[in-house]
Amino acid sequence: MAHSHDHDGHDHGTHDHGAHGHGPTDKRRVMIAACLTGGFMIAEALGGIFTNSLALLADAGHMLTDTLALSLAWYAFHLAERPATSRMSYGFGRVKTLVAYTNGIAIFVIALWIVYEAWRRFMEPPPVLGAPMLVIATLGLLVNIAGFLILHGGDRESLNMRGAILHVVGDLLGSVAAIAAALIILATGWNPIDPILSVLVAVIILSTAWRLMREAAHLLLEGTPETLDRDAIASDLRASVAGVSEVHHVHLWSLDGSKHMATLHARLDEGADPHVVVGAIKARLASEHGVEHATVETELDRCADGDGDHDQHHGHCGRDVAKQAHQH
């Protein structure tokens, strides 16, 4: 009694999830930012050693992880352009989400190191050369602003791109802190401001890194994207698509925060054309909810997966959905 319709003749192997949209330009933007960051990181590290400034060394250390992270982000975009294979049926788009999560961990580690080093230096503040520190930090700020502007024009729905932007924003804040520390040291000679402002930057970086890691982990665990409401989508399909009497077993997930996927069961009215209904459901999901790839199983009588007691958290097959339908 149940008819299964998978992608209207499309399968996962035919979709290249990373080769359209912002992909190629995002990839180029990330590579330019990686080269800028890596080039100045060497100069800033040498400057930090010369001036004995933790703020500069911390920013250089962050820039090192950023160079690696941006390079990894570039490689993720590169992998995402590959076509799907029989072993990787969704393609390589999720690599970008994995890299975003890894980037979050890297930012966390470097921020904790900055806090530790700042505490050690606050106990015994070393002398800092304010004037050279100010020059290097100002140059660093200009490089980071350039990197930020390059990345900011990319696709900010992509977690991978947001992770790359987060790294550069962390660098930008580090440069601002180093400039402020240099100015205060030049004006007052108070060296402890150097580790104090380093900690301030570390705290800001930690909070943003935590948000990035949490969102990436949510996607890796196949969580429903924040922009989608499963129950609202089920109700909308039931109300908007002719021939649909009930929608259940709805699962929503995302490959990288911007490419959303769905699977669902649709119970049809007597006499409804399954092919027409499936096409209408896919069109509605794409146009109204931003779900670009859906698998729809149609049913004419009982749900093939049972009455729904085992699935009450994932779609309410059977009587729970029927009750919800009457409420609408």
From TrEMBL:
State the residue spans of region: Disordered.
1-25, 303-328
Q: Where in the cell is it found?
A: Membrane
Question: What Gene Ontology molecular-function terms does this entry list?
Answer: zinc ion transmembrane transporter activity
Q: Name one Pfam family in it.
A: Cation_efflux
Going by the UniProt record, its keywords in alphabetical order are: Ion transport, Membrane, Transmembrane, Transmembrane helix, Transport, Zinc, Zinc transport
Q: Please, which domain of life does this record's source organism belong to?
A: Bacteria
Q: Name the chain's protein.
A: Cobalt-zinc-cadmium efflux system protein
